[in-house]
Design goal:
By secondary structure, the chain is of the alpha/beta class. The chain is built from seven helices and 16 strands. The protein has two domains: about 40 residues; about 220 residues, Rossmann fold, CATH 3.40.50.
Length: about 350
């Protein structure tokens, strides 16, 4: 190139140097712009990925993110059971969303609740009297029952006073009450022409067709003779029997009441049974005892039997020295899945159903 310049004129040589300088400046500008452009592109790519915020330590997180799966480590400790730990106890690992090189296992005892009381791993097969049901029970004229609610519907008509029926009935009823498991709910309903709760005072005027029952607290309940098939019906708000809870004191008072309660006249099966079936909650078992056949007993056996069956109430029947009551009482027991027993004149009882 030096050789070429020797043959150029001074003007041409000056112009050539000017062109060389311009080319150098252009190349330098292009190089600088290229470097700046590359830096801008790299900044746009790299800056969004930088996390300039400081790390926050979290001691507790209320909810674990669903996409994050953390494997649990099994942890067990050998501990002598005093007296014994629940068989379902096990060690669990607490997982934290805070990064940590060490997972701290914390043993936790967890027992699944159960409604089957007394049926766990370490507590036998049940409470109560051995069958695990917790229900109470008793017997009456040889009929054994197990139930939480037992109602006695007993004939207290004047005809019970003959042939020693009343004495036998009082003796057996007192005995049955003495066998009721404590905690069982029980009720005693007496009936003749009308029905009343055992222990209430009864004033019956047959000729006048009126009757008054004075209950606990002096509350009065009126009855009237409606005549015909209707017979005696409540005149106003009917009396409702209430449950007693069997205890030593309550049962002693009930037995004493049975010994002293006076008889009344007339016999209508339906009155006492209807009162028992109107109780809240319903009885599970009714002990029904009468000494005679009453007009309409065949209809009552069918209608009351169907009503009791629909409510899930079992009626156990006892015919006190009255063979003629056999068919209707057997029908009533049969319809409700109950028992039927006949008591003979010598005081012995024979279970028919």
């Amino acid at each position: 190139m030096g050789k070429i310049t020797r043959y150029l004129s001074p003007e041409a040589e000056a112009k050539l140097r000017s062109q060389r300088l311009a080319a150098s400046l252009s190349s330098l500008a292009i190089a600088v712009l290229s470097i700046v452009l590359a830096a801008v592109i790299l900044a746009l790519i790299l800056l969004p990925g930088l996390d300039l915020s400081s790390t926050t330590l979290v001691a507790y997180h209320s909810q674990q993110e669903p996409e994050q799966e953390i494997s649990k480590r099994e942890f067990s400790r050998q501990v002598q059971r005093q007296p014994s730990a629940p068989s379902s106890a096990m060690a669990k690992v607490i997982a934290s969303t805070v990064p940590s090189p060490v997972a701290v296992p914390v043993p936790e005892v967890h027992v699944d609740p159960s409604l089957d009381f007394g049926n766990g791993d370490d507590f036998g097969d049940g409470w109560g009297d051995g069958d695990g049901s917790g229900a109470g029970g008793t017997t009456f004229f040889g009929q054994s029952v197990r139930a939480e609610r037992i109602a006695y519907v007993i004939d207290f008509s004047s005809s019970m006073g003959s042939q020693g029926r009343a004495d036998l009935m009082r003796k057996e009823l007192a005995k049955s009450l003495g066998e009721v498991t404590h905690g069982t709910k029980y009720a005693i309903v007496f009936f003749s022409r009308i029905a009343w709760v055992g222990g209430d005072k009864v004033n019956l005027d047959v000729k006048g067709g009126r009757a008054t029952v004075t209950g606990e607290g002096g509350r009065r309940f009126e009855w009237k003779d409606a005549g015909g098939k209707r017979g005696w019906i409540p005149a106003g708000i009917p009396q409702r029997a209430a449950w007693k809870v069997a205890s030593q004191k309550a049962l002693a008072e009930s037995r004493e009441m049975v010994k002293k309660a006076p008889l009344s006249s007339g016999t209508s099966w339906d009155k006492g049974l209807e009162m028992a079936l109107d109780m809240t909650p319903l009885p599970q078992v009714i002990y029904f005892m009468t000494d005679g056949v009453a007009n309409g007993s065949d209809v009552w056996a069918r209608e009351i039997g169907a009503k009791a069956k629909s409510k899930g109430v079992q009626i156990n029947c006892i015919a006190m020295m009255e063979p003629r009551a056999h068919a209707d009482m057997d029908e009533l027991a049969k319809r409700t899945g109950g028992q039927f027993t006949i008591v003979t004149k010598d005081g012995k009882h024979k279970q028919v159903r």
